[in-house]
């Protein structure tokens, strides 16, 4: 789809819609031998409050059980980035209504296909949002997927949860007095990742190419790799200025200096693990060498422990 076609499509979304802090709680279940992790995730979505943080006059960060969300309000309709878990949708709508009850639903943008960012798609579509994402996000959601590391197998999403407007590389739109860039990363966390940059508000949502303050989950089963994460974070650094408010997929709001520290950590760990692998070390032998040791106190307290992260790095080199 061409950029111009995307722009026209976006501007028509209002009519289409009328016609049609923090590490998430669920990650704590990783330490237990859960029998139904998806049920645990959705249970957390139902009980976790939504925290709202103002980023600009009409741009707000919403944080709950799933991935970090951003909402832009205004007379042209609300734009929401990511939809968390289906069980969180009522709380998300309440949080948005508290910001601007009179603004209509307009567009839901998915940063990538993972369930903690898209499980609420169907309910929000029913509430009037038209779903927009990279074309590979639609492909992933439209077919069964597996998140092997978490033991989760997912069926194809319902028709109402699928993006109806997609793009392949770059999309530029104007909405509620701001100019937005939507840009696809090369495969990084997955092969579906995009960033959304609000120029006037100077807000950059980078999705799960950044886990702020923790080792990241890299989905090797759907195109993710350590090299891609490093390139992705470098690309985001090239977009941000020192004053840009950068929204990670998980963790607290950050800035360019925070993202640089994360990028440097990824690159250092990659280089250490690559040296061990090149020298003939097996994955278990590489783990025994503790290549992340200097970073564990800072980055090892979130979703991925040091050994799990090192294993992903080793396998995706």
- Assigned CATH superfamily: Ribonuclease Z/Hydroxyacylglutathione hydrolase-like
CATH T-level fold name: Metallo-beta-lactamase, Chain A
Shape: globular
How far apart are the first and last residues' alpha carbons, in Å? 32 Å
Structural class based on helices, strands and sheet pairing? alpha/beta
Order the strands across the largest sheet as they lie in space: 1-2-3-4-5-6-9
Poorly predicted parts: 1-8, 14-35
Order of helices and strands: HHHEEEEHEHHEHEEEEEEEHEHHHH
Residues in helices, as a percent range? 25-40%
Main beta sheet: strand number and arrangement?
Answer: 7 strands, mixed
Count of distinct strands? 14
Q: What is the mean pLDDT?
A: 91
By CATH reckoning, the class would read Alpha Beta
Strand fraction band?
15-25%
**What is the CATH architecture annotation?**
4-Layer Sandwich
Rounded radius of gyration (Å)? 19 Å
Integer tally of domains: 1
Overview of this structure, please?
The chain contains twelve helices and 14 strands. By secondary structure, the protein is α/β, with parallel strands linked by helices. The chain has a single domain, classed as Ribonuclease Z/Hydroxyacylglutathione hydrolase-like (Metallo-beta-lactamase, Chain A). It has a seven-stranded mixed β-sheet, with helices on both faces. Helix 8 packs antiparallel against helix 9 (256-278). The radius of gyration is 19 Å and the shape is globular.
